[in-house]
Amino acid sequence: MGRAPCCSKVGLHRGPWTPREDTLLTKYIEAHGEGHWRSLPKKAGLLRCGKSCRLRWMNYLRPDIKRGNITPDEDDLIIRLHSLLGNRWSLIAGRLPGRTDNEIKNYWNTHLSKRLMNEGTDPNTHQKLSQPPPPKENKRKKKQNHKSKHKNKTEKRSLPEKPKVHLPKPTRITSFVNLPRQDSFTTASTNVSSSQDQVQDHINNIIPWSDIKEGGAVFSVGDGSTSSDFECDQSRIIPNVAAGGDDHSLENIYEEYLQALLKTTDQDQNYQVELDTFAESLLI
DNA sequence: AAACCAACCAACCGCATTTCT
DNA sequence: CAGAAATGCGGTTGGTTGGTT
Fold first, then answer.
1. How long is the CA A60 to C1' B18 vector, in angstroms?
2. Residue A99 lies in a domain
3. Would the Cβ of A75 be found within 7 angstroms of any atom in strand C?
4. How far, in Å, CA of A259 to CA of A282, rounded?
5. Residue A160 falls within a domain, yes or no?
6. Residue with CA nearest to B10's C1' atom
7. For residue A32, what is the domain's CATH number?
8. Which nucleotides along chain B are within 7 A of a protein C-beta?
9. Where is region (Disordered) located (predicted)?
């Protein structure tokens, strides 16, 4: 708090990363692991600030990153997650394996929010707009499959408008709830809050989204590393479920949630109500 | 061919939160 | 417990690309 940003240091390289820098960073992390971003650049022989290194690694160099081609299923999922979580890109990204928060944020701002606007839906509230925006003449023809930049980019869906999206900064969960930022199903709090944000975080913390495969959103319960944490959390997050001793209760709730989540957008209103009801039910 | 414009996205920046001392 | 340091997140910017005029 109040200290100078690390990137203000003079003499540090900024701007696009060179292949050599990428290699240095990758090799260093392969050898020593992630973390200690502050000291990493020096040790790795990079003239970059730690922040920059972290960003580069997280958004580009990590081996598990899936680049390009955001599938229709993924994009549907992003919309639904956004309606639940708001602009919590890292949380949304956490549910889309191989996708980064930056990528999803960019994709949202350049594609999805515009699409929702065109469909007459407010991208912030996910409510139907009373007055759908008039269909604007597209001065330019659609760009199709023309991008061949430096990477294998997503096939772009061209949309007619470019409203700059200035979304309100999401409210962070205050310390009394003490929820983890992400990827931590292990430390969820039992505290109950009535705010929408916290309801959403509760949902986020108990749903073991673990696998979304290309060509279709496939969710599996108890798959991979999250499964044990998830089970471990049941009793803490939903005491009434665990107390009942019904091993299937949570799965049922999960299933119910998925049904709501995966409903088609034709039923947006009902879908939202179902999600709200579901979320509230968790807090009883 | 050149200027203009829109689309895209990597990277930067500021700040909140968490961890460390 | 307080303050400092480290980390992570979300908003924004600016460079690049490629289509249109």
1. 25
2. yes
3. no
4. 16
5. no
6. A16
7. 1.10.10.60
8. 5-18
9. 116-168
